[in-house]
Amino acid sequence: MFSVCFCFSLFKECPHPDEKQRLELSKRLCLETRQVKFWFQNRRTQMKTQLERHENSILRQENDKLRAENMSIRDAMRNPICTNCGGPAIIGDISLEEQHLRIENARLKDELDRVCALAGKFLGRPISSLASSMAPAMPSSSLELGVGSNGFGGLSTVATTLPLGPDFGGGISSTLPVAPPTSTTGVTGLERSLERSMFLELALAAMDELVKMAQNDEPLWVRSLEGGREILNLEEYMRTFTPCIGMKPNGFVTESTRETGMVIINSLALVETLMDSNRWAEMFPCMIARTSTTDVISSGMGGTRNGALQLMHAELQVLSPLVPVREVNFLRFCKQHAEGVWAVVDVSIDTIRDTSVAPTFVNCRRLPSGCVVQDMPNGYSKVTWVEHAEYDESAVHQLYRPLLSSGMGFGAQRWVATLQRQCECLAILMSSTVPTRDHTAAITAGGRRSMLKLAQRMTDNFCAGVCASTVHKWNKLCAGNVDEDVRVMTRKSVDDPGEPPGIVLSAATSVWLPVSPQRLFDFLRDERLRSEWDILSNGGPMQEMAHIAKGQDHGNCVSLLRASAMNANQSSMLILQETCIDAAGSLVVYAPVDIPAMHVVMNGGDSAYVALLPSGFAIVPDGPGSRGPNSGAHTNSGGPNRVSGSLLTVAFQILVNSLPTAKLTVESVETVNNLISCTVQKIKAALHCES
């Protein structure tokens, strides 16, 4: 008994005895040195376990208190009591500021201290109070105070190979400059603040998940057998992460990809592009049909985008009428982790919206997705992009399901490939030297810019016509004389100087062809072969009058083509064409243009008044496991080899009547339908494809 008490007493004074002290103890207690060593080790483990249990108990109690206070605030908000008469208060008679003061100030200081203490424990460093810097009537204080422990949990323990800095995840909730909540119909200021606090908590959790997914390799990410792309190991993902927006809806499928690439842009410029909805759409014109920033919760700290948090809406598209547009409402959160290292994460918010509002059908949920950007010494940035989504596959045509399930439709590869191509184009356009492939002798420097701007508008309108986004108000037609997989839409063009006035008819379809995407792209963009499929070529080859390079690949360019006149009385016609290609797909977009108007553009005039209606083609790989036919060759195992192919989307926009008030005729619909069918058949014949 004496020996045990003596050991406990000595342990309090010296829990880590050295070799000499252990030897002296063993002699005094008649024990072996190993026994003394193991006793002290076991005692230290017991003390550590007891301390952790005690701390966990305190944290659980604090969490329960915060949850109870949260519930009491909600109850108080639903049933406010007048402090003068004790009766029920009429919300409309109390100002927004006064509601906050009455409900918030009662618990302001205690809650602030508790949250700062919790955050300090998780982050391993003290968090300063905001009390000294808050304005007396600052209604947004509940955002900083309502974060709770979930927004910080685990953020300080991220294992990383990037220079993320010691304050990863910290300092955001307590120093974020938050815009004051605005009053909306049926939503009190307190509800608004509580919602924003949940948004911030969700953003922090999403950022934590994105960074881990960007850095961890196997077993979280594995290489696909076909194409070698990185795909997510869903079992490992479920073991590693807790779903931050709830479980996957019934009937939804998961797509998840990761891609890393070098991009000729610095991290600050890319972050500014991603946080500006207009610039984001301009950087990814073929992927984003429409986007807007619906609310800015925080604009960032210290005049930078660090800590910027905003609510956004976007329509994402694959250029085919067989793939529905994905509409997503999401948070976008930006965080600087170190000098030259940034991360931008998106996450859907549909699950934390007010359930009292009638639910709307959501065909896609965006799980934590985005990019980690790291500056490189050569002026490039290393971009690691992660795309993770759940979507309703039943609305997608069978032809495109392999493409989407592999992540090649909306996946990381497409985002990175588009970003690389667009940044390369911007670098060339900003350069003072004209590429050697350009032949623009008759075009001024201003004309070059005007022509590129016109081509961009042409391509944007083409994409909007294929996918029927809300950029234009399209009306879908159901006509019995139209092929099953051809979508025909109509709209009125009025008071738009960039389009001819009247009734515009758009028709689009997608087909599978047993040829490689590169071969199909080279065939369609070659002006010498255009007569094999284009009725506008007048049956002969076209001549390239001007060529503006937009990238290192010869397929990325804007051209001005001239068709040969069929007879002396017929004037030749000009066609503006833009072609682009990257690892994810390619485009060939063209439109007839007025010759006098193009002369104005080529001399640097305003291209906004050039009226055009675009047509063209979108080409993507058919995806693994597609319906491509089998060739006669066999593998070593005896099974047939699948012929790889392409998915080709053909789309036309045609003015069928110059009067906007005119009615659409059956003959007009049949004409456009026949034009699409004839063009597809000509392409198949020229490439020797089976019908």
Tertiary shape: elongated
Biggest β-sheet strands, sense, barrel: 10 strands, antiparallel
Please estimate the helix content: 25-40%
Strand content: 15-25%
SS class: alpha+beta
User: Roughly what is the average pLDDT, rounded to an integer?
Assistant: 78
| Parts with pLDDT < 50 across at least 5 consecutive residues | 121-125, 129-175, 181-187, 354-359, 629-641
What's the tally of helices? 17
**End-to-end C-alpha gap:** 96 Å
> Could you tell me the radius of gyration in angstroms?
32 Å
Number of strands: 21
Describe the structure in brief.
This protein has 691 residues and is α+β, with helices and mostly antiparallel strands.
Please provide a written account of the structure.
The chain has 691 residues and is of the alpha+beta class. It is 34% helix and 23% strand. It contains 17 helices and 21 strands. The strands form three sheets. Strands 1, 2, 3, 4, 5, 6, 7, 8, 9 and 10 form a ten-stranded antiparallel β-sheet that branches. A nine-stranded antiparallel β-sheet has the order 11-12-13-21-18-17-16-15-14, with helices on both faces. Strand 6 and strand 7 form a beta hairpin. Helix 10 packs across helix 11.
